[in-house]
Amino acid sequence: MLLKLTVLPGDGIGPEVTEQAVLALQAAADGFGHQLQLQRKAIGGAALQEANDPLPSDTIHSCLASTAVLLGAVGSPAFDHNPGHLRPEAGLLRLRRELGAYANLRPAVFFPALEDCSPLRADLVRGTDIMIVRELLGGAYFGQPRSIEGGPGARVAINTMRYAEHEVERIARVAFELAMKRKKKVLSVDKANVLECSRLWRDVVTGVGKNYPEVKLGHQYVDSAAMLLVQRPTDFDVVLTENMFGDILSDQAGGVVGSLGLLASASIGGPVGLYEPVHGSAPDIAGKGIANPLGAILSVAMLLRHSFSLEREAAAVEAAVSAVLSEGSRTADLAGKTHSAISTAEMGRRVVDAVKAHASLPHAVSS
Ligand code: IPM
Ligand code: MG
What we know:
Bound molecules: 3-isopropylmalic acid, magnesium ion
Strand content: 15-25%
Number of helices: 13
Order of helices and strands: EHEHHEHEHEEEHEHEHEHEEHHHH
Number of strands: 12
Structural class: alpha/beta
Largest sheet: 10 strands, mixed
Shape: globular
């Protein structure tokens, strides 16, 4: 198969982790007899520097002409004082919208080898396997009007949380479909005791749930869900939630399983899928070669699965990650007091070797 991708390294640690993710993808492609066609383009702060636009039209065109997009991260303190539309993040939000990527899947899986990494007791976190389904194109991120107005001392800022019924319905369907292939549990997270958006959300999700009688649907207020996520993470299966709650809870889930650096994501629903690690640009450690590339590498697995239906290839990448962790490979975020930390590139090299080893097993031979 020809795998046609646009790669957007972006800012901060984005380029470092993306480089390793591309090497892992290349190893999987080679191992299973696929061909990669990659275009590298600018986004975020990198694009602002080049073109004064966080999402140049050349980048959008390349993404729309690809089957999938692999992104590193966007965000840089250099642009903190820019107006909203000239911030790196604006490029990512526009890209998500241009790609119609309304469904953001963020798995948070606990690796048995990482028992010492979670701040939670091993007996609490062992077995955690959560799929956060975050609505990605609505809510306060995109609602109009939005503004800051008025003079010093008297400024007023406005954001609008807005959801239309069809937006809730389509993301709910994604969550229920995923639940059918998992433990058949959906927890819908909202703030229906305060927000109209959440009352509509709860009502529509309940309606969609009627088409999935086998799936156990629960509703939880977001404050309570945040507490339960650290108290009883193994109770969760699919978590369905709106844009901002999903942003917050997915970082928290990263903390629960040991490091945000492990978390991958897929943003799907439109014609082109977008794959990115959850962690962001981490400017404090950028350029040091110490970032964890596993979130980006696991995003490659999601890309193979969701954009190309290459399940064996996706599983090979995931198995490679599990294998290197089991052998004790740790980047700085995971090393703690018990392990010595390896670099981003060394972690990537070990994953590539493990992917190659896995692809050469007889059961993996391409049909
Ligand atoms: C994420 C990030 C983004 C978001 C930022 C960089 C705009 O935090 O993907 O979780 O808020 O969606
Ligand atoms: Mg976030």
